Request: fold
Amino acid sequence: MRCAQPGCEGSILDGYCDVCGLAAVPGSVVSGSVVSGPVVAGSGATGGAASTRSGTASSRLGTVPLGSARTTTGGSRPTRRLGGGAQTSRLGAGLTHVPPIPEVDPRQSLMNPPAVAEEKRYCSVCQAPVGRSREGSPGRSKGFCAKCRTPFDFEPKLAAGDLLGGQYEVVGRLAHGGMGWIYLARDRNVNDRWVVLKGLLNAGDPDASRAAVAEKQYLAEVEHPLIVEIYNFVTSPDGNSYIVMEYVGGRSLNNMLKDRMKANNGLFSAIPVDQAIAYIVEILPAFGYLHSLGLLYCDFKPANLIQVGDSMKLIDLGGVRRIDDDQSPIYGTVGFQAPEVAAEGTTIASDMYTVARTLAVLIFEFKGYQSQYETSLPGADEVPLFHQFDSLYRWLLKGTAARPEDRFQSADEMREQLLGVLREVSAAAGVGAVTRSTPSHLFLAPAAIADQLSWRDLPRLTVDSSDPMAAWLAGVTADQPAARFLALKGAAQQTVAVLAEQADAALRSEQVPTAEGIAHRILEADPWEWRGVWLQGLAALSRGDHVAAVAAFNAVYGQLPGELAPKLALAVACEAGGEPAVAERMYTTCARTDSAYVAAGLFGLARVAARNGQRDDALAALDRIPPTSRAFGDARRARALLLAATIDPDHALADLALAAGELEQATMQPVERADLRIRLMESALQLVRAKGPQTGVHIGTVPAVELPLRRALESAYRDAARLAPDSRQRVALVDKANAVRPRTLV
Reply:
């Protein structure tokens, strides 16, 4: 059975895709055809407003309050605790290429010597340094914390050759983590396969150790292609308990960073941003799977994600806990753990926080991420990558929002938006070509119009398939906005989807105050519902309030950083509202990312350039609209009009010749075409009379010589006369034709 995820060509094996790792969508495959699964609605971050020195960054613009910013003091939104073409490499979702990592002999990964460096010894409770050298004497590897008196022990408990459970023979030590030593072993009962032994806490207390094992037994039920497999739980002769896990070769992202630093003479070297995003996109379905089982991962960081071959594995399940567990210890890492966890516990939103922090650590030198920026991000003006990839910055802002209810509320939602960011990053880097449209679950495609886009031309909202009234809305057949509005008022339930459709119909029937009132109702019911702000932006644009429109669309962009529709809307509002730099940046992103947005983006770039007096840039933008586009004829029309309106005195005839050539391919109304042809021939005739004939130059098919030009102009006047709406204009045009007609003997 084929995977139902958009753009994925994998197959469903054991309930999960062997390419993207997502669960099968029930009822999604019928006779080989693929149907998209349900949409997870966006959550509400406030869309951070870090200032930047650049005038092109959207984060400096005003933004409508959304999410927690709309709530009264103390108000909150309960964060959800329960979740809801083939390439050589599967990583990158077909949008970029990630080099595979070969699997190596695990014995090459053993520590030699097996000792924890003194600078890495910290108390497990208060994080104070322990076991450090004093006055030339080496630090103790075992003892008590001088600050809180908690015992510490960095000595290995198992040695090579030890046999646990009658079948697991220890080979050596792989690493030392927060729960003690991690060992490499062979499973003597299963073909000597490699396994990993990881200790459980409370090892010094047999009863507590047994309780820890009982608490973790549910991990054996976790079975997903992106998650390390738990085989067993065993106890050593001294009473210590261990999880027996699948051995995963390859390299962890943490080791990749270390390797890159070593190759860069000790200086930080970030993982290429498209590859880093690909890693996170790949592993997010594993989080969705855990959440669907009622489990939280809790301690995600670069050390816990391994690339082996062309796939990823989430390892180290020692910190996994049940979502409804409010008693057992919470394990996390400073700089990755969400700020509310210590006081409020863990949620899906806190897991999403660790994912966003991990991506940040991978893609730039995040100095102070465990101190100054322990719970925040640097501003866009401090990190060049943030300015380069604005959508990525906005995604990180939402993923690491201070309040959990303002973050992504599910792994599916986070992944969907990050995929959109990856498309933009790959397109900007020239890694991925714009070859097809990627349908959005949230918006329809935009109109491709050369003239200034109005609010009516922006992408329309789709109906959320998970809305209780989705099926009913599909049956509403009234096409006229006023009739549709009345039909929608009769809905049995006034859900978000129904209200959004009502507001849209009200706008299109010129009932702007009514539409704004409905948008306000949506936001009153749910301050995190970005659709209400989107509708406010459309209403503001319809009444010419560009400042309000910019603020609204900028807020929606902060909620949906991977979607192009908010960027196009923001570009339109900024173009009309005197923010050409931001408009140009948003149009550029749209034009190079998705074929459905190419024409709208390039037309926008051409308008911005033309207003700035950059005629050649405007012409170049219009020329990039391909002949296969339905907007090609409109692009030729725009080029012809622009050339005719801005003739370069030094290349006047050449410009007229270009304009005439564009006229032949342009999509135009007959009257407009006739008028433009007259303008071109009049200008050409005037130039030839002033400078003489131009050998080899043609205005369309007419040589740049006076007699042929006069005949062509006469013909153009007579064509226009036949199209004139009244007799007065016809007579005037015929008189002009007679006046320019060459004298003959006939």
In short: The radius of gyration is 32 Å. Residues 78-98+251-428 form a domain with the Transferase(Phosphotransferase); domain 1 fold (CATH 1.10.510.10).
